[in-house]
Amino acid sequence: MNVAYVFATPNASFILEKMIVPQLEEGRHGATVAGMFFFVDNNYLLVKGNPTGERLAKVARRSGMLLMGCDQCCYQRAIADQLIEGIPIGCFPDLYQALGGAKIDQVITL
Amino acid sequence: MHGSDPPHPASPPAERGERSSGEKKHIKSVADCVQRPGHAGELAGAASIGEASAAGRVVRIGLFPDGRARFRATTCASLIAYAEVACQAIEAGVLPARLDADALRALVTGVHPAHLERAALVAEAIRAALAPENP
User: Fold this and answer.
1) Which of A75, A83, A88 is nearest residue B30 as measured by Cβ atoms?
2) How far is residue B60's CA from residue A33's CA, in Å, rounded to a whole number?
3) Buried (b) or exposed (e) across B40-70, using 16+ Cβ within 10 A?
């Protein structure tokens, strides 16, 4: 099953750090994660040096999973130029284009 | 398209400014420009209008006989920011022909590296507005 995660709540950090990231690192998540999109303060996870973000980026480089920040959220927080190298930012058209060929079965908002 | 706000004749105050060779530069963040796009507006009545587009993004710059500059752009934050500072600079007296991509990039801080090319799109729209064939 191919899934995409949308992180839109304050719970994202906990869920990523304690559940999703370790499972992806250990290859036992149970679904193929095609992409993750980050809204509001969850974009701080993508800033260079954030331990969870760096772990996610490592997984993404290995698996090809998309990580994308919400561009306006990043610009509002003045972090758009401080993200982990290679992580793009965009809005819905960019997200849909990036995941267009991924055959997503479920989009899960957390 | 962004730009439903009514035209505003005065440039919004710059949060930070610096003087360089006698010319005041208004350096703004993308968020500032998106939150207060004082130069977004209707282009009807412009002396010339230039348009540029790429990858589904469109920006139009209108130069008015009274010195005003206005833009309309698709809802792309960095594109709006570059268009906003371009219009602000033109109204502050910068010759439009001098506003190339590098000049526009120098006016906006904190842009994502992949979005820096959107300054070129705005510069292209300005060049189009200045083209001789433009009515």
Assistant:
1) A75
2) 39
3) bbebeebebbbbbeeeebbbbbbbbeeebbb
pLDDT mean values, one per 10 residues, chain A (110 residues): 97 97 97 98 98 97 97 97 97 94 95
Q: Which of residues 71-110 of B touch A (CB under 8 A)?
A: 75-78, 81, 110
Chain A's closest residue to B34, CA to CA, is: A72
**Cα distance from B29 to chain A (closest Cα, Å)?**
8
- pTM more than 0.90: no
Asked if B112 lies within 8 A of A89 by C-beta distance, the reply is yes
- Residues spanned by the domain of B48: 16-130
**Total domains, chain A:** 1
Is residue A33 within 8 A of residue A24, CB to CB? The reply is yes
Containing structural domain, residue A46:
2-109
Q: Does the interface ipTM go beyond 0.90?
A: no
